[in-house]
Specification:
11 strands, globular, Lipocalin, mainly beta
Amino acid sequence: MAEPVTVGVDCSRNVASGLAMPDLVLVGTDVVDIEIFDKSQEPLSKSYSAEAGGAVLELSLELYAEYLTIIRAFNEPGQDVNLKTYVICNSEEELSSDELHIRVVDNGVLMLETEPGVDGIPDDLWILYDKQN
């Protein structure tokens, strides 16, 4: 298994302001407009998953008072599992850092990794992760 990579964040500044965000979302093998997803106020779950081009992507979340730790696993058949850990500010306004942006939607989250570190995850598309029960 590949060594996990950890990315930290400085919560004292707003890193996402003014950045142009992509408006397309990868849902399985389809690319759809982000406008079809309504933002949700539902609380974050502890786990989400998605499939992209035969690979399985899984998110594990740990919520703390000020921070949110997200571990993303990218599992492509025949390859080592690629893990990346993000620590982002736990804010009601926005869940983002320099390298990660999350939007809560009905029954899932949209996640954009600007530097995913693995070829199978696009850095210019949001990915829909479905909530796991």
